[in-house]
Amino acid sequence: MRKNEIYEVLCLNVTNQGYGVVRIDGQVVFVPGLLKEEKARIKIVKVLKKYAFGKIEELQIVSKDRVEPKCPKASQCGGCCFQHLAYTKQLDIKTEYVRQLFIRNHLDCTIKDTLGMQDPFYYRNKAQFPIQVINDTVYMGFYRPHSNSIVDCDSCVIQSKEINEVYQFIKANMNVKSAKTLRHVLIRSNVQGQVQIVFIGKENHVDALVKKITESFKNVVSILFNKNDREDNVILGDSYRVLYGLESMHQTCMSQKIQLHFKSFFQVNSKQMEVLYLQAIHLANLSKEDRVIDLYSGVGTIGCVIAPYVKKVTGVEIVPEAVENAKKNAQLNQLSNIDFVCEDASIFVQKYKEETDVVFVDPPRKGLSEAGICHITGLHPKRVVYISCNPNTLVRDVKLFEETGYHCKVVQPVDMFCHTNGLECVCLLEK
Ligand code: SAH
Question: What's the family (predicted)?
């Protein structure tokens, strides 16, 4: 097989990344955007040792599950790899992916159907728009898949309406001089419709723009400049200056008030976050006698939500700004049975000696370390509720828990990232 060759193919399956899978002379070829049972003429665009990539030239038989993407840039932008597929079928792909992963790893647990959204659009409360200037033209939008070039976008159908409105205003009013010193604009919104804006770059030339924004939008409550002159792809730098309002904004989760510093983590889908945490609480089967640890606690969202149902919660988080927020959030919600510790979670569990009934873990994509799992099980909790945004590291970690006497009974996937390849799961491990 060679680059630029044309083939007529039948699509056998779709991966969790939205790639159609076809076979040509026994070799697997991945074709982004092609759906199961579709026939197409494809062009080979890249040949690797074990597989190749193709591009759709012409669809010959179209799947009944194919829908018109809501976003005109969906096929160019790296954000949504599933907008062309009916939403319920997206959920099926996500469930099946997790099921196969657990089966392949010989883990015998029930994988429930993925819980999706009624209306899977305009759901995100956080967007990071990259900015580039090429030949004195400003480009803003999202990165192309596996690339640093920007697909210029005027709106995004998975971001909240408020983020879209503010983004469009910023894009329309961004001059070349300001844009040249910026790398990203981060915009967050909350369910009350308030907005926070963080301009990220080498130098601050946005004062005039900030004035225009505050004159035009009553719902913008916080604007910051974050200095980042790093050469790598880390988005936020360390130092920052508040240009308007405060450096934090408010979010809500199941009627708890959450103060959120712009550097702190918060789930990007506020509605599905509540679905996810309700599942987590249900699985944890909490009682008033339970002493709970909330590892990777962020701004304390899970801890604050469960505190009223248990005896005591200890949250552990490594980002100091998030811990500050978490302590404040306990006060805001008048919770007296919750503490927060600023420490690496695995170091904390290694030293911790108190009786523990339930452990919640909600780590970043890379999951837990082997030592961390060992120290968690060393506390002998009755139940561990594992919330994961990466099914691959979840499976790896569940296997380790199983080796130390904890059994994974049930995994509940929740679609927090509709139309994209992201997937959140919550699972229960019982002693
Ligand atoms: N449970 C929280 C946050 C989950 S995101 C919520 O529901 O909002 C994961 C969190 O882990 C982030 O806040 C991140 O700052 C934190 N984190 C990353 N590495 C860590 C470590 N080694 N020890 C403790 N916290 C860590």
Answer: Belongs to the class I-like SAM-binding methyltransferase superfamily. RNA M5U methyltransferase family.
